[in-house]
Structure formats: C-alpha cells, structure tokens
Write a structure and sequence with these properties.
The complex is a heterotrimer of chains A (343), B (171) and C (477). With 343 residues, chain A is mainly α. Chain A is built from twelve helices and two strands. In chain A, α5 runs antiparallel to α8. Chain A starts with a helix and ends with a helix. Chain B has 171 residues and is mostly helical. Helix content of chain B is 82%, strand content 0%. The longest helix of chain B has 25 residues. Chain C has one domain. Helices cover 77% and strands 1% of the residues of chain C. Chain C has 22 helices and two strands. Classes of the chains: A mainly alpha (343), B mainly alpha (171), C mainly alpha (477). Chains in contact: A-B, B-C. The interface between B and C is medium-sized, with 27 and 42 residues.
Chain lengths: 343, 171, 477
C-alpha cells in the first residue's frame, strides 16, 4: 500500500465513523425520549413519520432556524469557541475505538479502526480530560452566574472522576499488557471479559463514565432545578446543538470504551470455533460490538430516568472516598490474579 | 521539505505564537487558553521526537488536570487588579527582560556552538526506543525504582500538607 | 539494571522511617486523638532510625545502581537529622498546644521532611537529590505556616514557598544543563570526569546555577532575603528544624557534589565563589544581628553568619575541612535547636516574649532555662569548651591548611563581633531586672528537649575527638 492508498482508506474510515456517529447521536436522542416516555408511562414523540422516526431531523431543523444569541456580558470569542471544543474533542476520541477485526475488502487488509495507536487508551483519557474545557469555557464566557457555577462544577467533577477512571483502566492494562485498544480486545478472547475478571473495575469505570459524560445521576453542571441550564444556559441555536451533540457523542464514546475495555469489544466468545466464513464472522463480530454498545446506551438512559441527582458533596464523597479506593483495590485484585494464575 | 519538517514548523509556530499570546493577554482566562494551545503544540513536538508517553502525559497532566485547576481558581477569583502589576512596578519588567535575554543567549550558545545534534544523531535508534511507554516503564521499575518510590512519599507529603493548610476545624 | 532485593536491607533507616510515615498517616486517619499519640511515636521512630543509621556507619556501599549510598557520611548525617528531629518533636507538643495547632499531621510532615533530608544526604544521583530536596522543602513550606491563625506565620510560609520554589527552579535548571553537558545524572560519574567536564562552558554554568540554588537553601548572604522573616514568622520549633537540619541537608548535598574538588588534586574551580559567599555571609550576619531586638530574628541573622563559617570549609576544600563542616553542622544543630527550644518554652501567646526585653531577669523566673540559654549562647558564640568552638576551630584550621589564612582571619573577626549579641542575651538574663511579669507555662517535654540538647552541646564540646575521629574514619570511601 502506498501513502495515497493509506490516506484514502483513512479518509473513508473517518467519513464512515462520522456518519455512523451523527446518525447514532440523532437516533440516540430519539430513543432516549421514547424510552424515557416508556419508563414514565407517557407516549413520547410519535408524530413525525412512523412512530416519530423522523423526529431527530425535525429537531435539527428547528435548532438551525433559531436565532443565535450571545449575551451582552459574554466574551464573544470564547463563547463561540466553547461548543466547537466540545464537539471536536467528542468526535476525535472515536478514532481509536475498534469496531471489528481486520477484514479483507477488495484485496486490502483493513483494520476496523481509524487509527491503531499503540497508546490508544491514554489517547482516550487525554481527550476526555480535555472535554471539560468546552464546558468550563462555556460557563465562564457566558457572563452569567448560573453558567459559571455549571462550568466550575464540571471542572471539579471531571478531575475527581478522571482519577478513578484512570486507575480502573490500570487493571485492564495489567491484563492486556498493552495500551492498544486492539490488543486489549484481543486479550479478552473467549469469556475472559474484563467485566467478569475484574467486576470492581468495571463498576468504577462505568460510574466514572457517567460522571465524565455529565449524565444523570451526575449531571450537576447543568442541574436544571438549581442552575437553569447550567453551563449552556446562555446558548441557543446551533451552538446549543453543539453541546447537545457533544453530550450524546460522549455517551457513545463512553459506551464504546466500556465495551472495548470490559465487554470484550467486538469479540463473540469462541465464534472462530464455529467455522463460519471470514466475512460472516467479521459481520457477526461488528454486529456484536454494536449490540453491546446499544445495551450499554440503554443502560445509560435507563439509569437517567430511574435515579435522582446526587448532591454536590455526595458526588465528591462518592468520587474520592468510595470510587477511588475501590479502583485501587481493583488494581491489587488484578495484580494478585496475574501473580496467582500467571495470566 | 519533507512532511516532518512541515509539521515541525507548524507546531513550533503554534507554540511560539501561543506563548506570546499567553503572556500578553490581560485577561487571565484567555492567557490560560493560550497556554493550553501551547501545551498542545509541545505535545505535538514530543510526538515528532517519538516520545509518545511524554507527549500524552503532557496533555493528560498539564492540559487536562493542572490547567483545569488553574482555570477553576482564576474563575473563582476577581482578577481585575492584574494588569496593574507590570505598569506599577517597572523593575519587574526589566528583571524579566534581563532573564529572558540570558536564557536566549544560553540557548543560542547551546544550539550554535555546542551543536547537540552532532553527538545525539549517533544515538537516534537509542533515543527512538527511549521514548516508548514500554521503555519508560522498564526504566521506572528498575533503574529509577528508588526515585520513583521517593516521588510517592513526595506526593503523600504534599497531599497531607495541602490538607493541613485547608483544614476546617481549626480551634 | 535489576534491583537486588537484599539491597533493601541496607537502607533500613529509610524503610523504617517510610513505614513510620505510613503508619502515622493511617493513625491520623482512623484515630481521633492521634495528636496525643503521634509525638511519642515520632520521637521513638526518629531515635530508632537514627540509631540504626549509626550501626551502619562503617558499612559503606552504593546501592540501587548508584542511586543511594549507605553508611559513612550519610550515616552521620542521618543521625544528626533524626536526633535533631526528635528534639524538635519533644519541644513541639506543648508549644503547638499554646496555639491550638497541635495537629497529628504536623508530626507526619516532620517525619516526611526528615525522610527528604535523609535522601538528600544519601543521594548518589542528582535525581535523588532533587526528590529529597523537594520532599524536605514542601514539608517545610507547610510546617512554617502550621499556625494558620497568625498573619506572620502565613507570610513566612508564603515567602518561603515562593522563594524556595524560585531556588528550586534554579536547581532544576542547573541540573538540566549538567545533564545536557555531562549526559549523566550520576554524581559519581560527574565527579570522576569533573576535570574534563569543567572545560565545557555549559557544564560550568549549570554547576554554578546549581550552587546558587543551594546557596538559597543554606541561607548564604546574597541569597538570604527570605531568612529573617521566615525564621521569625514560622512556628519556633519549625524554625529550629529548618535552620539546623535543613541547612545540614543542603550542606550534605554541597559536600557530595564538590567531592571531586576535595578528593583529587584538581584546582578548586569554585573557591572564589565560596570564599566570597563565606566572607559576605559571616560579616553581614554578624553585623546585622547586632541591631536585632527580637531573639528569633537575631538567631536568623546568626544562622546566616554560621552558614558563612561553614562555607569557609567548602572553600578550603580538603578532607579536614569536610570533617570540620560535618562536625560544625552537628554542633550547630544541637546548640541552635536548644536555643529555639528555650524560646519555644518562654514564648507566650501571639508571639509575645520573643523580644530580648522579655529575657531580662530570666534567671529569677526560671534558673534552669536561663542556664541552658546561656550555655547555648556561649556555644553559638564559639566560646570553649562548648561544641561551637571546636566546630569553628576545625573549619578555620582547614582554611589555614589550604592557604586561605585571610578567610580564617575574617572568620575570627566575625566571631568576635558575634560575641557581642550572643552575650547580650546572657547579660539580659542575669544582670538586668525583669521588666514585666509573665508566667512561663509548665512544659516538661520542652524542658527535656532543652536539657538533651544542652547535654549534647557539652559532650561534643568536652569530647570533640570522639565525634571527629568517627567522621574522619568514614570521610574517604
């Protein structure tokens, strides 16, 4: 493969991932509304198209047509920049999450990941930690107290939960002996899923993922009853849509990371023993990745509509006094497993 | 001009411009934003030098954690008084200029007279391997085991110190 | 290179102190009245660590691929640090209670700072020096401001932190240049190639910057700005710790990195630097101290001049001068700690009774305190047969051996000046009427600390040879 072929293949991959992401985000919003309606015995959006299936497009058009307001007290430049930071960070994270094994298409062997970086997990952690800037800058630049409080809350919350997130990932890295997401997926062959081997790490990572994506029960940066809309109080039109997009994209990434790190990624246990063809196997594996991701996303929505919001001190206590020690215990547990069973 | 040089120039320019922007903006939040850009440019330069670990840690630790805390503090403080500092105390400015000139002279000397690339280039392979995460891990747990453990105590002491200074129940 | 786990046995003092820190932290977390228990635990911990360090005195090795040294000079330094810290702990309990700042964390930070000093003195690699230095300094920054209610303590802490961070910046910059030119951080490698390396301008610049950074830490003259305010504002016991063991730790590093000059026949490149620093520090400290009415501030300036005397040893740069410096550091540690312990006992609330006036007629209020204070003042002034005299004596002799007679003369001159302000305290205590009444609170542990340091000062003064022969026996390795 020469350099141009590599570039073209990468561009195609990026395009495919972006399309999938955008579609998933819009339908995630739709599903969230339908599922929440179902949980609360309501109907939810069911008018635009069959069972409301075109609702996301209607929403996007509505947001596009709204007037873009930036407040007088706002710092215009940063006010405009903040949603872009949020969206940029959310989308670029997806580059390292593998959605399937290597496949051969038209004679090219293609990895089903945009970039196979050998420090992929660190890359995800780095970008997640940057995601906070979108929220913080949005909160500060709006020139509103509610926004500022939301922004400050988000920065403290992100930093606190990043710690336990990083330490939970430590257990996964110990098992795989690599930072490459592909190697981590491959290390979970069969039923050696990390969720089964290290359940504590799975729980701490999932909780941290909720906090990092600002989802209920940890959505304090936007806490409607206290802060109006939190960091995006002063945003409207497409800038607001940017935050909306980033939030759901972050959810998808979190789900993708949970699947990759703990649920065996695209692995279907012992599928290679069935003797199916290469294409069928690959399709089933890619399908399994999306099924797992869908399950996690459903779990995200389910939790949001079932558990009330934490108070801020409870959030901090949970982060530092429960999740952080638990993630340390997880590392010791994994290290002990490795030592005893020579994994 | 190969790709690497082009990327280097872009990153170096970004770094330099954002550094100047960082020290010239009167608004501390904007300064912080420029500093974050600077960290990114620096991380990119590290990546060009094949030091992936340093590069990513630069982003995680500096851009992702330290600067967030900085912003946290800056946003909570009223920083209206800041711009006066340099206009009122001229000698600080002169001192800063002197220091900057000294550092520049020294860097210039290093680059043009010491020619570090001459003996570094012989060890390209070695330095390529040095930056990988495997190598850093190996070194950290063998040769630099003791400093690593010492760093643990350092962080413990710093944490306890911060807690003491922030202690609530001071009778 | 892989680490042989048996090497851990040879750094037993580190392990014990480290374990002590962890245990203390756990105690502080889970036990409500930890501040009543931790002082005694720390005192015993320090004594045990110091004693174990001494047992390895003649067992000199370099461990962990050239990271740490065990035994020898470092063992003596470890002993000084730990004994000094034990004395500080004893005098701290009641002192901190006066301010309501008797936190368990105080003792954990004390232990950590001593661990840092021990790392500094045992380091054979610049990395370790830096780690130890930072561990010590960070603990000191916090300890200086442990009494958060007092404005001057906050000021002291902040000043110390900012200037200390500045000095650390210098040191790191110097280390970077040294690493860039020598391409190693191992002190042994640098020392062995010292004469070749000094041809390199970058190395010289880096080394000079490193020396400037450490001149801050030992409080030598042009880099002394932080000393008076910090020493006066900090908690008295903490001042005692940082003016003695902290200074000793910084000197141990200077001795280690200057070994090349001491052990081989290489011209002492930095003799002028050290001689100038020594002269200025001695004279400045002694002259300015005369004008001080606050005892803590006076001792701060005296600490600058003592740094000057010790620097004479560095500029002399031979084996006997190194032995002299170590002896001086030991002697200075206990006489200064003793003096600060007395101040901490006398000191009342809100910094009261640290003025010289409060010491007028002390003999009638507390004869024991007055006696020991007089003892420490005589020792600091360098009057035989106290330990301070022999410290200065050995250093001056070494200077004369190295053809630096003028420096020794300046030193003697400066000592003569310093006699004035040290003896003024004695005169106030014995020959002046008490100006105002105050009650010295009963303070048994503080009294004990004073007595132990007094005893040590006397022992070192009367039998200086016992210590000096031990130092000389381990000085070359």
């Amino acid at each position: 493969m020469n350099i141009w072929e590599i570039i073209i293949i990468t561009v195609i991959k990026i395009g495919a991932i972006l399309t999938i992401m955008l579609l998933t985000v819009s339908y995630l919003v739709y599903f969230e509304r339908r599922i929440s309606a179902w949980i609360q015995s309501r109907l939810g959006p069911n008018r635009v198209g069959w069972e409301g299936i075109l609702q996301p497009f209607a929403d996007v058009f509505k947001l596009l047509l709204k007037e873009d307001i930036s407040p007088v007290a706002a710092n215009k430049f940063i006010h405009g920049l903040a949603p872009f930071i949020a969206v940029f960070v959310a989308f670029s994270t997806y580059a390292v999450i593998p959605i399937g094994p290597d496949v051969t298409i038209f004679g090219y062997s293609i990895q089903l990941v945009v970039a196979d970086v050998n420090i992929g997990v660190l890359y995800v952690l780095a970008l997640t930690s940057l995601g906070v800037y979108g929220l913080t800058f949005a909160g500060w630049s709006s020139g509103s107290k509610y926004s500022l409080l939301g922004g400050i809350r988000s920065s403290a919350q992100m930093i606190s939960y990043e710690v336990s997130m990083g330490f939970s990932v430590g257990g996964v890295l110990l098992m795989a002996g690599s930072l490459s997401p592909i190697a981590i997926v491959e290390a979970q062959y069969g039923w050696m899923w990390n969720a089964i081997v290290q359940p504590i790490g799975f729980i701490t990572f999932t909780v941290a993922a909720f906090a990092e994506t600002n989802r209920l029960p940890f959505d304090l940066p936007e806490a409607e009853p206290e802060l109006v809309g939190g960091y995006h109080t002063e945003y409207s039109s497409m800038k607001f849509a940017g935050f909306f997009l980033a939030e759901y994209a972050n959810m998808i990434i979190a789900a993708g990371m949970i699947v990759t790190l703990y649920l065996g990624g695209w692995q279907v246990p012992y599928i290679d023993k069935l003797g199916l063809g290469e294409i069928v196997t690959a399709l089933m594996q890619v399908g399994s990745f999306f099924v797992k991701m869908g399950a996690i996303l459903f779990f995200f929505i389910w939790v949001r509509w079932s558990i009330p919001r934490f108070r801020y001190d409870q959030l901090m206590n949970l982060g530092w006094k429960v999740m952080f020690p638990l993630s340390l215990i997880n590392i010791v547990w994994v290290a002990a497993l490795i030592m005893i069973f020579n994994l | 001009m190969n790709l690497e040089l082009i990327i280097f120039i872009v990153l170096a320019l970004t770094g330099a411009i954002s550094a100047v922007g960082m020290i010239t903006r009167p608004n501390p939040v904007i300064s912080a934003l420029f500093l974050i850009f600077n960290f990114f440019a620096l991380a990119g330069l590290y990546l060009l030098l094949n030091a992936q670990f340093i590069s990513i840690v630069q982003i995680i630790v500096y851009a992702g954690a330290i600067m967030v805390l900085f912003l946290f503090v800056i946003m909570l403080l009223r920083t209206g008084e800041e711009p006066k500092l340099f206009s009122e105390k001229k000698h600080i400015k002169y001192f800063a200029i002197v220091i900057a000139v000294l550092v520049f002279v020294q860097l210039g000397y290093l680059i043009f007279y010491e020619a570090p690339s001459e003996y570094i280039s012989q060890r390209v392979q070695q330095s390529m391997e040095a930056g990988t995460i495997e190598n850093i891990g190996q070194q950290l747990y063998t040769t630099y085991m003791i400093p690593f453990e010492a760093a643990g105590f350092l962080l413990l002491a710093a944490t306890i110190g911060a807690l003491v200074l922030a202690k609530k129940n001071f009778e | 290179m892989p680490i042989n786990s048996s090497e851990y046995l040879q750094i037993l003092p580190f392990l014990i102190l480290g374990l002590g820190i962890v245990i203390s932290t756990l105690f502080e977390m889970y036990y409500k009245n930890s501040e009543n228990f931790l002082p005694w635990f720390s005192a015993i911990l320090f004594l045990v660590t110091g004693a174990i360090a001494l047992t390895g005195l003649h067992d000199q090795t370099v461990l962990f691929g050239g990271m740490l040294a065990a035994g020898g000079k470092s063992a003596i330094f470890h002993f000084i640090f730990n004994l000094g810290a034990a004395i500080v702990v004893m005098s701290s309990v009641n002192y901190l209670n006066k301010y309501g700042a008797n936190f368990g964390e105080y003792y954990i930070l004390l232990q950590s700072s001593v661990l840092g000093m021990m790392m500094m003195s045992a380091a054979r690699d610049i990395f370790m020096i830096f780690m130890g230095l930072e561990l010590m300094s960070i603990c000191f920054y916090v300890l200086a401001g442990i009494n958060r209610k007092k404005a001057s303590a906050n000021e002291a802490s902040m000043k110390y932190f900012l200037l200390g961070a500045f000095a650390t910046g210098f040191i790191v910059y110097g280390i970077a240049l040294i690493y860039g030119s020598a391409q190693t951080t191992s002190i042994d490698a640098i020392v062995n190639n010292f004469s070749a390396l000094t041809d390199n301008v970058i190395f010289i610049v880096g080394f000079a910057i490193l020396l400037i950074g450490f001149s801050f830490k030992i409080a030598a003259f042009p880099f002394h700005m932080w000393v008076p305010d910090v020493y006066q504002g900090s908690a008295t016991t903490v001042t005692g710790l940082m003016s003695t063991t902290g200074k000793a730790a910084a000197f141990s590093v200077l001795i280690a990195i200057m070994t090349a000059i001491f052990s081989e026949n290489i011209p002492n490149t930095f003799v002028d630097y050290f001689a100038a620093l020594a002269t200025l520090s001695m004279l400045f400290g002694s002259i300015v101290a005369i004008a001080q009415d606050n005892l803590k501030r006076m001792l701060a300036y005296s600490s600058i001049s003592h740094a000057g005397y010790m620097l004479i040893g560095l500029s002399a740069g031979n084996e006997s001068s190194v032995a002299g410096i170590i002896f001086y550091l030991a002697a200075y540690a206990f006489m200064n700690l003793g003096a600060f312990a007395v101040i901490s006992v006398i000191e009342g609330e809100n910094d009261s009774n640290t003025e010289l006036n409060a010491y007028a007629g002390l003999n009638s209020k507390s004869p024991v305190m007055a006696f020991f204070m007089a003892l420490f003042m005589f020792a600091l002034a360098g009057i035989p047969p106290m330990a301070g005299f022999f410290g200065k004596y050995y250093v001056f002799i070494a200077a004369i051996e190295a053809d630096l007679t003028w420096l020794a003369v300046v030193g003697v001159f400066s000592s003569a000046i310093s006699v004035y302000f040290y003896l003024r305290v004695v005169v106030y205590m014995y020959f002046k009427e008490s100006e105002y009444d105050f009650i010295i609170q009963k303070n048994n542990s503080g009294m004990f600390a004073v007595m132990v340091s007094g005893l040590l000062v006397l022992v070192f003064g009367i039998l200086p040879d016992t210590l000096l022969t031990q130092i000389l026996s381990v000085i070359n390795y």
